[in-house]
Amino acid sequence: MSSQPSHLSSLVALIANATKLVESRFEASSQPYVPTLDDTEEHPLDKELSDPELRAAIQTIEGACAQLCATVARPSHTVVNRQMEVLAPHCMNVAITFKIADILEEKPEGMHISEIGKRAGIDSQKLGRILRLLATRHVFREVADDVFANNRLSMQLISSNPISSLGLHFTEEAFGSASFLAQTLADPEWGASRDPRKTAFNKYTKYDGALFEYYEGGTPLGAAMGQRFGVAMVGWGTAIEAGNVVFEYPWDKLPRGASVCDVGAGIGNITLQLAKAHPHLQLKLQDLPERVVQAREEVWPKQCPEAIEENRIAFESIDFFTESPIPDCDVYYLKNIIHNWLDDDSVKILTNIKKVMGPHSRILIHEYILQHATPSTAPAEDSAVDNLKHKPAPTELLSNYGAGRVRQYNLDLVMMSLLNARERTLEQFIELGEKCGLEFVKLWDFGEMSAVELKVATGSGLRLSLLLNHRQFDALPFVYSFSCL
Known about the structure:
CATH architecture of the largest domain: 3-Layer(aba) Sandwich
Organism: Coprinellus micaceus
Shape: globular
Oligomer: single chain
Protein name: S-adenosyl-L-methionine-dependent methyltransferase
CATH topology of the largest domain: Rossmann fold
Distance between the termini: 62 Å
Helix content: 40-55%
Keywords: Methyltransferase, S-adenosyl-L-methionine, Transferase
Pfam family, one: Dimerisation
Number of domains: 4
CATH superfamily of the largest domain: Vaccinia Virus protein VP39
GO molecular function: O-methyltransferase activity; protein dimerization activity
């Protein structure tokens, strides 16, 4: 079936219009210029969270450009390129492992591969070929033959940047495990298993426990990776702009002294941001003992000592499968927790939280909410369904923005490979809540990640079948004052 004659032009127009919006944001910034890939100085906008319009524009550009390229090129050309994309992460791993960005920082004008190789302690000719592939993909730049320098992207790989720890997590345990995915699926016993100890990760590492057992000291290497994983999650939060929840969820509507419990917080990246942006909140950080010690003794004294001095943060260990968190908090916040577990374990976690919730309490599950890769349709005019919907993508794109939001589908496969776990759709989250006696309140769309808000079911709430018929529910800003009476 042939495409509409205007299809390519529509995609080009979509890209052009979205680009104008991006340019306007740079021009309105404190340093009104659009950075080039050759720039190594951080632009002020790089430190700021993107507003909803800017996020949508960038996702539109990414989705439309990828769709345009896939449309105009021969299918064989595109598919072969997709097959070979697996090499780039391996090259990225080499660059991070040998701290190439750190080395190049000493010579901003560029360094010859002979010197880079000598400093890194590896063969310069092989390293040059690796850097050339990365430079061709706009990570590093080749300023002259065999002379490489940092650029806007490679600066993210400097060893002090948590993105470098994230890169090692993905290119080692995540992608290493994924390379065993076909073998795992073909295994008669493991292929259909949901056991977190029968995964591609287990075939890759030959470790017989689950990933988090590995991280908590299953082996010396696993313990080191667990430490690295905590830092990597800071980089992950930065890359996906998870901090949008700090400003786009109505924390400011909660009264002074309202309590927020970050369950499975790790070192508390989001909690740190809440402490700085909303000092009226009382914060609780809970995770396994090793992470709590790391947060209390290493991270918070350096990054937010005032919260400790003012007694605005409490640190308590928890095993959320067997224990309930600190009782009667106003919000129980879970970021990237439920996607680690299949339904039975997720029900245990949520049920343990429900046991200590008050009538005013909320659970806020901050994760990716998967959408189907169906064609986008025109925005619905019925505002009564806002609590149940993501903001619609332009009609020229897939409903999930295609390549503009591909990260969540990559992560879904990472979860399968590492833990036999998954990302979920909104309907699956609502069903999960119902199994625990929790009632859906609202979907919060933060542009890439989203959040599902739940409360203790009153017995009169509408169930999933009615929700899918587009009924409206109250959201926290409107109900909180009544629940406190």
